[in-house]
Amino acid sequence: MSEGDSVGESVHGKPSVVYRFFTRLGQIYQSWLDKSTPYTAVRWVVTLGLSFVYMIRVYLLQGWYIVTYALGIYHLNLFIAFLSPKVDPSLMEDSDDGPSLPTKQNEEFRPFIRRLPEFKFWHAATKGILVAMVCTFFDAFNVPVFWPILVMYFIMLF
Q1: How many Å from the N-terminal Cα to the C-terminal Cα in the chain?
Q2: Distance (Å) of CA 74 to CA 30, 64, 68, 69, 157
Q3: In the predicted model, what is the mean pLDDT of residues 18-35?
Q4: What is the pLDDT at residue 113?
Q5: Global confidence as pTM
Q6: What are the residue ranges spanned by the domains of the chain?
Q7: 82 and 121 in contact (C-beta within 8 Å)?
Q8: Which of 47, 82, 129, 138 is at 20 to 30 A from 108, Cα to Cα?
């Protein structure tokens, strides 16, 4: 490989057709994500609709309970990250007396900043549902399991 070669370049120095295709596909995907940013309610309604379609599919097919269990744990993990603060305030405090007012110029009040912002939470949850939906099309992911045990395990996670 010579000095001028980089990822995606063909022998003649121009990007390959495959590289250009996937780059363009990524740009279109990012453009749609950017356009959907202000429509919070619509995004969540679509995600809930996808979730409902997924649940109906699992119910009608009577299988893929492991995939559903993994999706539930993934969504629970995302939800906990969404509710958690980015910086743990208990680690920031020096005294044991509890929270106090700022005493220095650089100690200003900071609003609650989430560890996982709402948009990233929605994006990850929607991708998780779509991946789980794709998994229901393959019998390799339909592991036979007694589903009430999975429900009990999931409830115990709370």
Answers
A1: 54
A2: 23, 15, 10, 9, 12
A3: 95
A4: 82
A5: 0.77
A6: 1-36, 40-157
A7: yes
A8: 82
